[in-house]
Amino acid sequence: MSWLKKIFGQAARKSYFPPPIADGPPQPEGYWSMIVDENGEAVTNRPPTATDFLARRPIDYIDGGTQPAFKKDPLLNERENTKNLVDYEIRSQKNKEHLQKAVFLLSQTDDGARLLSKAKQMEFRLVFNDDLCKERNASGLCDYANKQIPLASGSSAANVALTLKHELQHMEDIKNGMRYGLSDTPRSAILLDRVLEGNARVSEAVAAAEALLGSPQGPARQFRTAALFNEFWRACPQMAQEAQSALPQAAENKWTTFAAKVLPAYFRETATLALYERDYFKFIDKYVPDTSNSIKAAKDGDYQHRAAHQRYVDSARNNANTLFTQDRWNAENIAPLLTIRGIPYMKEITGKGFSLASETATALTATGPALFEKLKQNIRTVLPESDKPALLDLPVQKSALALPALPNPYTGYTSKLETEAFAAIQMPHRLDGSRLSNGQRSHESTTQLFNDAFKAMKSGATDTDRIHYVINSYLHQNAGVANVRGLVGNLLEAGLRAPIGAFPEKYLVDLRARATLSVRLFKEGQASDISPKEAKLLDHWQQMKDKGMDPVWIDAANKQASWVAKDGRSDFYEKEVLGYLKDKPVAEKAAIPAQKRQ
Fold first, then answer.
1. Residues linked to residue 426 through DSSP beta bridges, in sequence order
2. For residue 243, what are the contacts with CB-CB under 8 A and spacing of at least 6?
3. Residue 568 confidence class, pLDDT cut points 50, 70, 90
4. Sorting pLDDT into bands at 50, 70 and 90, what band is 352?
5. H or E element in which residue 220 lies
6. Eight-class DSSP state of 351
7. pTM of the model
8. Left if phi > 0, otherwise alpha if psi is -120 to 50, otherwise beta: which for 479?
9. What is the DSSP letter of 521?
10. Helices (H), 393-549
11. Sign of the Cα pseudo-torsion (139, 144, 145, 150, in order)
12. Main-chain phi, psi angles of 484, to 5 degrees
C-alpha cells in the first residue's frame, strides 16, 4: 500500500478533503504532539475526542508587533488620544491573534515550516504596519534590507497566512539574487517582476495544497484544512484552478511538476499583471519624473528658486542616464534561481505551451502602453536625443487569456480560520477552561449559567434588554459589585459579544475610566489597562459602527422597543464609550490580487 493510500485512504486521488473519520481520539505521534479541534484550536482542558486532530507545534518566530506603536500626541485632546489608543489596542490584539494562527497554519505544511525556520534563522521580524502597506498599496512586503516582513491587518488567519507565505517566498528568492533596479531594461525588469510575483503565488498554492493533503511524514489524523485553498481561490482563481487540477502531482510529492503547471496561470491573471505594471511605472516615474515645469523655472524663474529647480532637473537627468543599461534577466539565467520548496522547476515548463522566452511572458496588458507613454515623455524631456524611450515599446496582449471561471470545490468546508459572518449578538459558547471545585470547566460553567439565565429571562422587549438583565443578575449572584471587571471578563472570555446597551453602567464606567487613565498616565512602552478580551469587545462595537449599525442598540427599531433604553437612566457612559470608536468607518480594503515586494 502506498503512503498516499495509507494516509488518505483508497479514494485519496479523487477526494483530498475532508480528513478521514477516526475510530477514536488521536494519540500524539513524533512531531505531531498537539491535539487540536477542526479550527486548529489546542485541546487542553477537555478530553480529546474522535473529532480532534494532531498538529505540529508552531515554528518560533520574531514578533515585531503592530507598528507604529501608540504614542500620545500632545497636539490632540484626551478624547482623541483615547480614541487612537482604543483603535491601536483593537488592531494590535486582532493582529496578534491572526499572526499566531497564521504561523500555526503554515507550521502544519512542510514548506511553510521550512520558510518560517529560515526567517527566524535570518533574524527576520514579522510585523504589522498598515501605514507602510497602504503607502505601497499592498497586503504585505518583504523588506529585505531591514530584515522584516511588514503585513497589513488581514481579514482572517487564512488571509494572513497566505500573505505571509507569499512574502517568505520573496525573502528566499531575493536571497537567491532575484531583484531588479533602474539599470534593467523594461523587458528584463518586467519579466523578473512577474516571475517573482508568480513564484510567490505558486508558493501560496503549495501552502493551500499542503494544507489539504497533509504531510506525507505525518499521521493519518493530522490537522488538515481547506481554509488556505478557499482564500487562494478568492484571490487568484486562474492559478487556483490549475492548482486543483495539479493536486494528483502534489499528492505524489511531485512539487516541481505541480509548480510548473501552476506558474503559467499567473500570466493569465490580467488584473494582477496590470497592478504590477502600474507599480513599475511608479518606480521609474519616482526617479525620472516630469521635469518640464522645473526646466522652465530654472530658466525663467526668480533667482531664489532657480538653483533648486536645476538640482531637481539634474537629478532626473542623472537617473535617466542610468536607465535601461542592462538586459540581464532572461529565461536562461532566471531558471536556476527560480525554486519552489528549495528546488528549481523551470525545466519542467519547457514544451508545455509556455516559456519565459516567449512574448506572452512580457506582453503588456491593455492599460500598460498609456502608462509607458508618460515615462517616454519624461525621459525625452531630460534626454532629448536618447533612444531609451523605444525600449518601453513592449508587445501588448492580443486577447483575453483567462479561462472560464470554475466553482471552488471547497466552499462548503469553511472554518473559523476564514472570515466569518458578523452577528451583533453572540452568546457565550466555550466549554473549556480551568477545572472548578465541582469538576466543571470554568468557561463551560459560565456559558451554561448565562445561556440558561437568558432562556429563562422573561422580561425585556429585545435581546439586548435580556442580556443586560442577565449580566446584572450574574454580577449580583456572584457578588460582582466589587468585581464587575473580572466577572464581565469571564463572560467575554466565554464568547459573549453584544451591543454597548447590553452592559451595565458599572462596567461602562470602569471601562471608560481605564481607557482614559491609560492615556492620561501613558508611558512609552507601557501596556494599557484595556485587556485583550476587552479589545475584542471594542472591536465588535467598532465593526457594528463600520457596518452602519448602532453599536449601542443595534438599530432604531431595537432602541424604540427596548425597555432598558426607556428606563429613564442616563446614557452618558454609553455615549462616552461610543465616542472612543473611530468616527468614520474605514472602507474595507479591496482584494489585492498580489502582494508587492520591498
1. 497
2. 205, 208, 209, 229, 232, 258, 262
3. low
4. low
5. none
6. T
7. 0.92
8. left
9. T
10. 442-456, 463-477, 484-493, 505-520, 532-546
11. positive
12. -60, -40
